[in-house]
Amino acid sequence: MIRVWAFVIVILAALGFAGWCSDFVTMQGERTVYTVDCRNGAWQGDRCGGQLAAGNRYRYRALKPHSEVIFWTVGSKEPSGKFGECTIQDGRNWHCKPNADAQRSITVQMAEGVPVAGPAGVTREFRAVSKWRWLLLQRGWGSDIEVPPASAVAPPA
Questions:
Q1: pLDDT tens for each residue of 74-103
Q2: H and E: helices and strands count for the chain
Q3: Where are the domains of the chain?
Q4: Residue 9 and residue 15: Cα distance in Å, rounded?
Q5: How many beta carbons lie within 10 A of that of residue 26, not counting itself?
Q6: Using the 8-state DSSP alphabet, how is residue 44 labeled?
Q7: Alpha-carbon torsion 126, 16, 74, 83, what sign?
Q8: Ramachandran class of 47: left when φ > 0, alpha when ψ lies in -120 to 50, beta otherwise
Q9: Is the Cα torsion angle 118, 119, 121, 126 positive or negative in sign?
Q10: Mean pLDDT of the chain
């Protein structure tokens, strides 16, 4: 009987860890985007010509009743920003009108939980990876991976 419970606990712990690593489990209305930087080199297509390193984490919280999205850079002393005039379906699907705070953000639109590249010169350029890849890069592993640039999708009418 003890073996059965031990097996169940191990399986639940593994599922919990997998859910945490994939960002499947998040706070309602909130999304974190994990970015990478190309240090001591330049991007050559999807590959970094220098050293690939974990970049900033950008967190977005959609406030549907207020038609606002608040964002901040995790671990940064930079103040949070806010988009008003947003069309929000849920925390993973929203679109906002760019404002002065957009210069500190990587996106003004989230589609199915994926950040959409903002208009050139309005938002920061970025390359995003999954949480588990970001965690490996933060520890110095997996620096030879392909990271395509963020795709731009036309905002909804």
A1: 999 999 999 999 999 999 999 999 999 999
A2: 2, 11
A3: 27-138
A4: 10
A5: 15
A6: E
A7: positive
A8: beta
A9: positive
A10: 85
